[in-house]
Amino acid sequence: MKVCKFGGTSVASADQIRKVVDIVTSDSDRKIVVVSAPGKRFSDDSKVTDLLIRLGERALANEDAESDLLEVVDRYRSIAENLGLDSDIVHQIEQDLRNRLSRDKEDILLFMDTMKAAGEDNNAKLIAAYLQFIGVEAKYVCPREGGLLVNDRPERVRALPEGDERLAKLRDEPGIIVFPGFFGYTEDGTLRTFNRGGSDITGSIIAAAVKADLYENFTDVDSVFAANPTVIENPVAIEKMTYREMRELAYAGFSVFHDEALIPAFRKSIPVSIKNTNNPEAPGTLIVKERDYNEQQVIGIAADSGFTAIYVDKFLMNLEIGFGRRLLQIFEEEGISYEHTPSGIDNLSIIIRSRFMTKEMEERIVERIHKELEPDAVIVEHDYSMIVLVGEGMQYTTGLAARAATAIARSGSNIEMINQGSSEVSLVFGVKVKDETKSLKELYNEFFVKSYVQS
Amino acid sequence: MKVCKFGGTSVASADQIRKVVDIVTSDSDRKIVVVSAPGKRFSDDSKVTDLLIRLGERALANEDAESDLLEVVDRYRSIAENLGLDSDIVHQIEQDLRNRLSRDKEDILLFMDTMKAAGEDNNAKLIAAYLQFIGVEAKYVCPREGGLLVNDRPERVRALPEGDERLAKLRDEPGIIVFPGFFGYTEDGTLRTFNRGGSDITGSIIAAAVKADLYENFTDVDSVFAANPTVIENPVAIEKMTYREMRELAYAGFSVFHDEALIPAFRKSIPVSIKNTNNPEAPGTLIVKERDYNEQQVIGIAADSGFTAIYVDKFLMNLEIGFGRRLLQIFEEEGISYEHTPSGIDNLSIIIRSRFMTKEMEERIVERIHKELEPDAVIVEHDYSMIVLVGEGMQYTTGLAARAATAIARSGSNIEMINQGSSEVSLVFGVKVKDETKSLKELYNEFFVKSYVQS
Fold it and tell me: What GO molecular function annotations does the UniProt record carry, in alphabetical order (chains A, B) (predicted)?
């Protein structure tokens, strides 16, 4: 049995929804279908979720929101009409939106969550109606009845395992289940949404709960590539990789699949397939627990800019028990998570994402370090990029770090930082932003272009 | 003006002390002489400090210590007689030892400190007497009168800056000052010793306080070498290096100069010279604040075994603010200082010196990590070696990490860990113990053997 999730572009129009239905009905194993809200049909288009956010904000500001409301309804009407559905479903959707708009606005977060969730919820109803219309046994399941139970921490919504038993029963329902992504309900019935892109999470939770054979994630690319296609021309596709590899790549700019969405599938070892709604015949990328590492040691190379290094130097630092801990605590108390902490004997650098640290925070942190740790020097350097070589086979391969470092040197770039730990699936190089692209290109040549001859 | 410190082997016998006196009197800038206790005269010999420790322990156990006492006195007698001194000084030393032995033994630490300090104290008196005997204006100065003031934390004795003013006055004393190393006094007059090898510290404190032009550290090697001479045949001598470079080398097995001893000299930018008492004409090694990095990017390569890696893996670890801090806190609460913390996206390794962690502590730590951090995996790996490439020029040199990693690969060794941070003076490679020597040899070839042709 398979759980399929379709992203925003896959369900943005009637034509796209027909492709989805073709895909779902072409394989009887495709039992549970998780859908996003309609996304962009063309590059300047608006996503329905963004329209709903604007609509909700208007309503909160007591402004006239009628035209915003009609714009959302029109998106659904256009889909419904083009699918040949009668206007019942459109009236239902309009009534649903008016109901949501008239709800209590005391709890702003809850009101906005309720508005945002309308995108997925109504799209699921519409797609279920279309399946029925063409004679396929199908039904919409609301996350509340379905069992998508979440905790009540609005700032960090997570699924609760207590819902799994109910979700697992979806297996036994007759026909195809159409389930809206992106939101769940707390024990007391309060609606909560996941982060943006949260339909991936819904699909993964359900796939884990029903112990699916496969969780298919349909999007608008043929596969995950070994490097960023906007930098490397026609990069090779990744046919198979492990959860850990996907996670490492996602960290540094590979945004194909939602970070948190991997967890439920990972915990239950459900294979995840990334496929293209517009080219379902393409093999796609399969994410699994283990792969044969001998075939390919390096599976992909990711690069991301926007890092800052805070370098702290203190003579005999290494004899001070607790120095590193106290330094990290300063960042923790400022609410900043860090990425790496490369260290020498008497120095330690904290590498963070620059966007997490405002100028004010930076000044306060530097002052606190001076005051609390009495270092010899604190130096803040911006404009770092991290280049991450990912591959489970790397740890067993003698000479791989040498090849990588040599490729970066060959590109004329200076390595500012290297971070490789024991048993790791990644090798991280820090370079200056200006050296990022040329380093990435040379690394790609080294590890993925067979005919590449070193200059 | 120069402060000279002579180590144990340099003052172990009358012949050695004559060499010391020749060195001191050959340069009128050599004003303050810090001496150790008599060390070994031959490889099976005992150091006087070790004899004193045995003597003190006998006394504490209420055992007959007379023969142990006489063995110490005999060592001084043999030196005094061979220097042609009359027996007055030997009687003084014997009386001093008997006085120390008869002191209150309630505070065991203080009693043992008092016994241990007798080695340096009496040697300083003896050498001052010999200088006077041959007609050189000289006097012994007791650390209490001299101003070597220390804090009252017996477990971590440190010089207090409040003593500096008094120490600085040693400059104005007539003749040569002979000052015993290794111990100082607290504000209330309690004797406290530094760590073993603490005479280096005494010399450095005085050199800083009197603002010496040079702090000469006389020992039994011609210079600091670029690599361990027991592994690399005839390694090149280091003529000049920076404090930071010395410190990095000292960390991984270069034990020429006491770690803490560098601090006072470093803080006041006093150049430190490592010289050989037995070959004072050799240029030695000069340790300074800055050097011309273009001449030599890599100054030395150190290697040390006995490291353990504790690897912790948790899916989405990197989204948990405070994960790394909480992990480090467990080690801090166990009183274990760590060396490096290489990290991937979802994993973190703590590299520690194996000797700091007993089997029991290891089990407790692993249990705490499981309980408090709920990781996916905790793996402890022993038998790591760290190889440290040291050089202030490295950070400006493109391709250096590549050359190093390539050399290690060429030796057939696998790199388990790499740690290079921003602005650093060192590049640290972790390898398995079995690969340490061959990696070190190949790195030495790469960076120090000009004629070396890559195989």
Answer: aspartate kinase activity
